[in-house]
Amino acid sequence: MWSNDKSIPKLHIAFIDEEHREILIFLDSILNGKEDYPEASIRGFKVYLLEHFQHEEYFMSRKGYPEYEQHAAAHKVFVEGIHSGLFQEPLKVLEIQDFFALFVGHIASYDAVLVNWLATEKMNRV
Ligand SMILES: [Fe+2]
Ligand SMILES: [Fe+2]
Fold first, then answer.
1. Ligand 1 centre from 121 Cα, in Å?
2. Please, what's the b/e burial string for 44-77 (b: 16 or more CB within 10 A of its CB; e: otherwise)?
3. How far is the CA of 120 from the centre of ligand 2 (A)?
4. Which bound ligand lies closest to the C-alpha atom of 67?
5. How far is CA 56 from CA 51, 62, 113, 114, 116, in A?
6. Cα(83)–Cα(103) distance, rounded to whole angstroms?
7. For residue 8, is it within any domain?
8. Which ligand is nearest to the CA of 75?
9. How far, in Å, from the CA of 111 to the mean position of ligand 2?
10. Is 9 part of any domain?
11. Which residue in 2, 19, 102, 123 is deepest, having the highest Cβ count within 10 Å?
12. pTM for the full predicted model
């Protein structure tokens, strides 16, 4: 079973880490079939996921992140997955597994690069 924080790189930006944690916990519980998911909770999860991408994109644009376009394009792949019925009953476990792995990969690459850029920017300003 996926064990809490160990497998997600911590980015040390509170809202991002918190949203990643919530998303991965939910995906993990779908994959482990711990609960029966009522339609409303799946719908809530999809909204949460879509909002996460919007929050990051808003954050990047506010900070003037130079790789905004590439990062937002990477989000689009997930958003398309969500809209194409990935999380509709009956849940497709294999595809959700891929989504999970891609999402963790995205955190470790795109999101981590964003956070590193911010840290460098801050240092340059001092
Ligand atoms: Fe993210
Ligand atoms: Fe991202």
1. 20
2. ebbeebeebbeebeebbeeeebeebeebbebbee
3. 18
4. 2
5. 9, 10, 13, 10, 14
6. 16
7. no
8. 2
9. 5
10. no
11. 19
12. 0.89
Say if residues 96 and 30 touch (Cβ distance below 8 Å): yes
- Residue 32 CA to ligand 2 center (angstroms) comes to 25
Residue 4 lies in a domain: no
Domain extent for 20? 14-121
Query: Domain holding 49: CATH number?
Result: 1.20.120.50
Give the number of domains in the chain. 1
Exposed e or buried b for every residue in 6-24, given b needs 16+ CB within 10 A?
A: eebeebeeeebbebbeebb
pLDDT in tens, 37-77: 777 888 999 999 999 999 999 999 999 999 999 999 999 99
CA of 97 to the centre of ligand 2 (A): 18
